[in-house]
Design a protein that fits this description.
binds fe (ii) ion, six-stranded mixed β-sheet, alpha+beta
Amino acid sequence: MSQAGVTARLIDDRIALAWGDGSNAVFPAIWLRDNCRCPKCRHASGQRLFEITDLPVDLQVGKVEVTGDRLLVTWAPDGHASSFALDWLQAHDLNPLQRAARYEKPVLWGADLKATLPVADWQKLRQDPALELAWHDDFAAYGFGVLRNVPREDGQVEVVGNHLGFVRVTNYGSRFDVFSVPNPNNLAFTAVGLGVHSDNPYRDPTPGVQLLHCLESDAPGGDTLLVDGFHAAAILRREDPAAFELLCKLPFNFRFRDAKADLQARVPLIKTDVDGHVTEVHFNNRSADLLDAPVELVAPWYAAYRKLAEILKRPELELIFRLGPGDLVVMMNERALHGRTAFDPSKGRRHLQGCYIDKDGIESRRRILRRQLRQHEEVAA
Ligand SMILES: [Fe+2]
């Protein structure tokens, strides 16, 4: 940004900055004081050295001025001085347009994405940070990604999981096998088709990311089915806003029980953030337990639930592709809802291995790659 012509003025308990191009930003005094980066306020690690209760309750701006590329503020009544880089302030502008621009908008998809699946070769990706970052960018936009050429060996799914993040151990262990078994404790371990779902909504927190690695797939059928839960939620919101709101508002109970576990969690089927962006979709018919809600809301909730389920079955939303041996799909569990077509275990084998990692781990990996590549570019420059 050009620093020329930036001016600051105090309006009540806010500092207004005019950027010089006609646009403005407004920063509440308490927000600025809390973000002071001086050595008294922040340790060299970046961690904050004071608590909110340490700040003057009657905090006021004593003096404010723009000097060069910095905003200087002297606070009253304690005389504390803060200095903010204008670049930093612009990057964190709280103006609705700027906040909207910072939101990483998901790319909503449907059946058509089959022609351009977000895919990379695992052997190349693990050697090439730029290729891996491009895959992460796609993963963030689409909510899933495919890796090919993952060795067809037991436990490789955990190797990939621990590269992308940290494998989470559950009552299923650190990984699980999906194939048909006698006396299964879960429909996933049979040969029937599975409607799209998020995994394990009965856990708190729900697993953020699921990995499924195909070791064998010569049984007829058993294709992978993915539906973009955010796309389905957007359609519901457009076609029936009241139904959307109800699914955001009322928590639903999910449950899983077997001999060793009794897992339950209450979660709304759709979660949104403070700006109304959809952040999570929870949908799992097999572990759906019950609704505990005011009686007058029960029938409307069921009507809304049915509408969402109907949208999730629309063929134009169903992305169907075949995972071959050595392919591995990584999914944002609360977005890319997954299922499979039925298969015939008498005519061949189908064996997948899966594991879970958390969202924060894979998001951290992406930031680290960005940082590495930026440093690399800076060194190269
Ligand atoms: Fe599943």
